[in-house]
Amino acid sequence: MRALVVSELAADYGGTWVQDIPTPRPGLGEALVRVRAAAVNFPDLLMTRGEYQLKPPLPFVAGMEFSGEVAEVGEGCDRSLIGEAVLGANRIGAMAEFALVPAATLRPKPERLSWAEAAGYRAAYLTAWVSLVRRAQVQPGEWVLVHGSAGGVGLATVDLANQLGARVIAAGSSPEKLAKVQQLYAPDAIVDVRQGFREQVKAITGGAGADVIFDPVGGDIFDESTRCIAFDGRLLVIGFTSGRIPSVNANIPLIKGFSVMGVRAGEYGRQFPEKGAENLAMVDAMAADGRIRPHVSAALPLDQWREGFDLLANRQVVGKAVLIP
Fold first, then answer.
1. Which GO terms describe its molecular function (predicted)?
2. Residues ≥6 apart with Cβ < 8 Å to 163
3. Helix (H) or strand (E) holding 249
4. 251-254 long-range CB contacts below 8 Å, 24 or more apart?
5. How far is residue 209's CA from residue 34's CA, in Å, rounded to a whole number?
6. In sequence order, what DSSP letters do the residues of 204-235 get, joined into one string?
7. Under 8 Å between Cβ of 209 and 229
8. Is 56 part of any domain?
9. E strands present in the chain
10. Which of 22, 29, 59, 159 is the most buried (most CB within 10 A)?
């Protein structure tokens, strides 16, 4: 099978290329899935350089999320799975013509979603759900400021916050992408952060500040977010795509009465398995009945994987980019 293999950790994907490798065979409890689409996520890029917390042994096949059809199952699996349209997630292995995963981790593909939409929604919306519902416990009518709102996770958060009845401020640094966010999900306000956003957010919220701030960017964005968060607010730390891990003096949240909350959606599910299962079930149900609407802005052949990675690295994607093996 053809697969995107990371053979060496290097800058600019120097140790990564498409190769022909043996197609795996499913063992006990495993399923082999014919991949129809594989999502491009920021951790995929980091893993090619060894900069993600997960460091798989080399060589490994890149890719965390996929959709496809079950081609074969191993011993101990229900053979009626064969031919079923499914979606799945694994820490590696998705960017290939076939993916080998534990059969128990597969879920039915929502019929209303295309292969591309199904491949990329789950991790983004799961992060949004854990952030807004489990950690921030957002309430209807609260102001939610979403940084990086045009990215895969940010856009999912805008969509979900709308569904939860929050008032949404979509923030970003590209007027073109913000216009697309406005067109897709109609947030209550949009904010261009290039000239600063503190005063804009204060004005939008009547001076109180945002009740919840979703921050996958870090760096200067985090620093300024501490200056426009409401009393009793929740500042959600999702990641550091800016490249700088910020810090905050403890007297600032003390005086302003806000909380800084870390979010790792996958780890949340591992620490609290019952809640993790509930999270996944809720996200899948919302996708199945149309309450959430994932957006794919680029679907590229596997051979164009570098273009897909660069679209994400250069922040040119609105929503998700996917690869088609």
1. oxidoreductase activity
2. 286, 291, 292
3. none
4. 252/226, 253/226
5. 48
6. HTTTS-EEEEEESS-HHHHHHHTTSEEEEEEE
7. yes
8. yes
9. 2-6, 16-20, 30-40, 60-61, 65-73, 85-89, 98-102, 107-108, 143-146, 167-172, 189-192, 210-215, 229-237, 259-262, 296-301, 320-324
10. 159
For the chain, give the percent of residues with pLDDT over 90.
91
Question: Running DSSP on this structure, what letter comes out for residue 190?
Answer: E
Q: Which residues contact 148 (CB under 8 A, 6 or more apart)?
A: 154, 171, 172, 215, 216, 217, 241
Q: What is the pLDDT of residue 91?
A: 87
* C-beta atoms surrounding 60 within 10 Å: 18
Cβ contact 269:280 at 8 Å: yes
Residue 156 and residue 41 share a domain: no
Mean of the pLDDT values across residues 142-147?
98
Q: Are residues 183 and 73 in the same domain?
A: no
Would 45 be classed as within a structural domain?
yes
How many C-beta neighbours within 10 Å does residue 134 have?
18
Average pLDDT over the chain reads 95
Tokens of 306: 């570098």
State the first-to-last Cα distance of the chain, in angstroms, to the nearest integer.
10
Q: Which tokens in the block code for residue 295?
A: 């957006």
Q: Tell me: pLDDT of 40 over 90.
A: yes
d(CA 138, CA 156): 15
Is 96 found in the same domain as 10?
A: yes
The verdict on residue 103 lying in a domain is yes
Among 3, 9, 1, smallest CA distance to 58 is for 9
Model pTM? 0.88
Based on the domain organization, do 159 and 78 belong to the same domain?
A: no
Provide the residue range defining the domain that includes 26: 2-109+295-324
Question: Which pLDDT belongs to residue 120?
Answer: 86
